[in-house]
Design brief:
With 443 residues, this protein is mainly α. Helices cover 67% and strands 6% of the residues.
């Protein structure tokens, strides 16, 4: 596949070589064009976008990152925006229009194909993180009594408007989904076969209100390419394709990673410094208060630290290893919840396993710490204190790293949200209290 380089396109724009620029854009995949536009200065990005045909522009804009998309949508003329939206699939058009001002969205919807406009309006009523928000309404649905040749003619008539036709959906007279028919099977069917005879009756589907994470699990579990979406009465509304789910999986993974450190998905590499400060400051403020709690625990043992300054050197080891262990457990449990691996039946088993892992790691690392303390300082008792504190803190890390996200999930809170700061606080408190407490008693 032809690959247009950023440097070459940049030079073409700089030289305003429109003839060669148009030629290069025509033979470049929309996703590759979008990747380059994402990195271009805003004026250059809009210049390139303006050279695209409406059809190509509809494919490119759907692939742009949020910053580039916002820049282009702010500058594109209304008449061209209407033409671009008219070329898009309904789910992608709904995503674009949801980011625009209401008056602009309304005007666009008034001037595009009425069938598409009605479909997009329906999609905009659904939660964007639900099956309804993911689905596209471009589908091929056929009545159960249609014969093979009728089915093939129906597909021919709709093929140009619908991408990725792997399956057609069979409905009854009330438009309720009753089966799914693979296109390959249709081609091999006898002339007198009807849809009802050829279809698979055991069909997987997603209720229109199902959360997108649950939809992704169905795709992952059953290795699906497409999944029909129905309303509460079983009426077929649309379909979700695997390319939509790949985006969901990427978004969910990014969202969890961001939340675990107190960030929002909107905080990107080139987000303005002021906006980044606004997004990060509340989390850092929370961190300040948890750090004050931890420091108050250390303050209880101030006299012990004053007598044995070596404790101040070793304290970060206990806290650091406990924090890392807690984060490892938190990551495993949070992903287990997200992937549906953790259920009401196996949660206790998962918690026990993580506690056991923590204790074993604590014993092994603690033993090494005892040997190291003896070799470096010649103080076996100091090593014992450090080693026992390691075991205690690894236990705390394993237990709370598993329990905290489970509790948050049971309270219908996002397990990734705030779990890391809570676990870090608990491992710090547990590590310092056990280490300094043992040192006070034994040393």
């Amino acid at each position: 596949m032809y690959k247009l380089s950023y440097e070459y396109l940049f030079e073409l724009v700089k030289q305003k070589n429109d003839l060669e620029l148009n030629r290069q854009l025509e033979k470049t995949h929309p996703a590759d064009i979008a990747e380059i536009i994402n990195d271009l200065p805003s004026d250059f990005a809009f210049y390139v976008f303006a050279k695209l045909t409406d059809e190509m522009a509809s494919d490119v804009i759907a692939e742009l990152n949020d910053e580039a998309k916002e820049t282009i949508l702010d500058r594109v003329k209304e008449a061209r925006l209407i033409r671009i939206i008219d070329e898009m699939e309904t789910d992608e058009a709904a995503d674009i229009l949801s980011d625009l001002k209401d008056e602009i969205s309304s005007k666009v919807l008034e001037n595009i194909d009425k069938v598409d406009s009605d479909s997009i309006k329906d999609l905009l009523t659904y939660d964007e993180e639900s099956a309804g928000g993911l689905m596209k309404t471009e589908i091929i649905s056929v009545n159960r009594k249609m014969k093979r040749d009728e089915l093939i003619d129906d597909i021919r008539g709709k093929y140009s408007d619908i991408e990725n036709i792997h399956y057609i959906f069979v409905i009854d007279d009330d438009e309720k989904l009753i089966g799914v028919l693979e296109v390959v099977r249709l081609l091999l069917a006898q002339e007198n076969n009807i849809a009802e005879d050829l279809m698979e009756k055991e069909v997987l589907f997603a209720p229109v209100t199902m959360d997108q994470e649950k939809v992704a699990r169905i795709f992952r579990k059953y290795d699906l390419f497409v999944l029909p979406v129905v309303d509460e009465k079983g009426k077929l509304l649309g379909r979700i394709t695997v390319d939509d789910i790949i985006d969901v999986i990427d978004d969910e993974a990014s969202e969890d990673a961001y939340k675990m450190v107190g960030l929002e998905n909107e905080d990107k590499v080139f987000t303005s410094p002021l906006n980044s400060v606004k997004k990060r400051l509340p989390w850092l403020t929370l961190n300040l208060f948890t750090a004050l709690i931890v420091s108050s625990v250390v303050g209880i043992f101030e006299q012990t630290i004053a007598k044995l300054s070596i404790l101040a050197v070793l304290m970060p080891i206990v806290a650091g290893l406990g924090g890392n262990s807690g984060t490892q457990t938190l990551t495993v449990i949070t992903r287990g919840i997200a992937l549906g691996e953790l259920t009401i039946h196996n949660t206790y088993k998962a918690i026990f396993k993580e506690v056991l892992v923590g204790i074993i790691n604590g014993v092994l690392i603690g033993t090494f710490a005892i040997i190291l303390a003896y070799l470096l300082k010649g103080q076996i008792l100091l090593g014992v204190v450090l080693g026992v504190a390691m075991v205690a803190n690894m236990f705390i890390a394993g237990f709370f790293g598993a329990v905290v996200p489970v509790i948050m999930k049971s309270l219908k809170l996002d397990p990734a949200l705030a779990s890391s700061v809570i676990i870090t606080m608990l491992t710090d408190i547990g590590g310092f209290a056990s280490f300094l407490g043992l040192a006070t008693i034994l040393l």
